[in-house]
Amino acid sequence: MTSLEQLVFDLSNAFGPSGYEKEVREVFQKAVAERTEISYDNLGGIMAFHKGSSEIPKVLLAAHLDEVGLMVRGILPSGYLKVVPLGGWWAPALVAQRVIIRSKKGDHYGVIGSKPPHYMSDEERNRSLKPGDLYIDIGARSGEEISALGISIGDPIVPAVEAGFLSPANFVVGKAFDDRSGCAAVIQVLKEIDADHPNLVIGAGTVQEENGMKGAHSVVALAEPDVCLVLEGAPADDFPDGGPLIQGKLGGGPQLRYLDPSMIANRALIELAVQTATELGIPYQTAVREGGGTDGGVIQTRGLGGVPTMVMGVPVRYAHSHQGIISLDDLKATIHLAKELINRLDQATVADLKRNPWM
Ligand SMILES: [Zn+2]
Prior knowledge:
binds zinc ion, 359 residues, Elongation Factor Tu (Ef-tu), domain 3, alpha+beta, nine-stranded mixed β-sheet, 28% strand, Aminopeptidase
């Protein structure tokens, strides 16, 4: 396994739903400690500073550490756990899946249960499932048995999934690629970036993106960036009935996003990315997204006077489910393009992006 593959596996396997990102931050911190100066915000986020030949402009590379998960809402006397979602789940994707519940006394496996079809009325079969309908079965016979294991209200839960390779296309399957693929890209850029890039790079791992982009607020206030690349695990749309407008195809390269409901990207910055990718033969794809949102929406407007921002997405099939799939080639292309862009984001270029954000 290459070191990049190992990094992707470690990040994917790490436990880190919104508000509980400790393990992911440790992987991030360990990976960049040698080459960067590290500091933290007060919510759990991390910032790794890599100074090139100049201290300005400040280039923020942002990825979120957290993944979608669940939280224990209550313990039923019958020995089941009721849960609430942390982040946006489609409830049917949770049914019959294994999960890990992290308690003060350690981790416990459970299965998300649901009523078998044999016991469903016609009305129940046709009704749409909600996360609140679901419960977790850990094999306990009573609420007391659950409490004795150390499990209590407020404990965080993630999918019980180990990353693995999918052949033959250089794909990896696992959980949390939204946004651990972005975390892997930020980390790898910090590890590989040239010593004399004409700016100060701040690689950030934000917290609680899936809970309303909370960590983007705290990071942008401390980092005060001049320009920002948000590195995301962007939901792929190349599934069989994805329609004729596929804009997030595995193997198509990073997805450069003009628009999503959280922001309109700095068009001049996208043009610079397209020009850079074209010159160097790096694959990329462009997208206009009707749904979703990223930390970029916060960073763009909360930075002093506004921050030229764009999103580069590694396409993730089946995002926000137990089993996502990414292409390692897309990840490598994202890292390559981000590094080359950083080399071009000098003081004059970033001043231009601020003065003339259009095409
Ligand atoms: Zn995300």
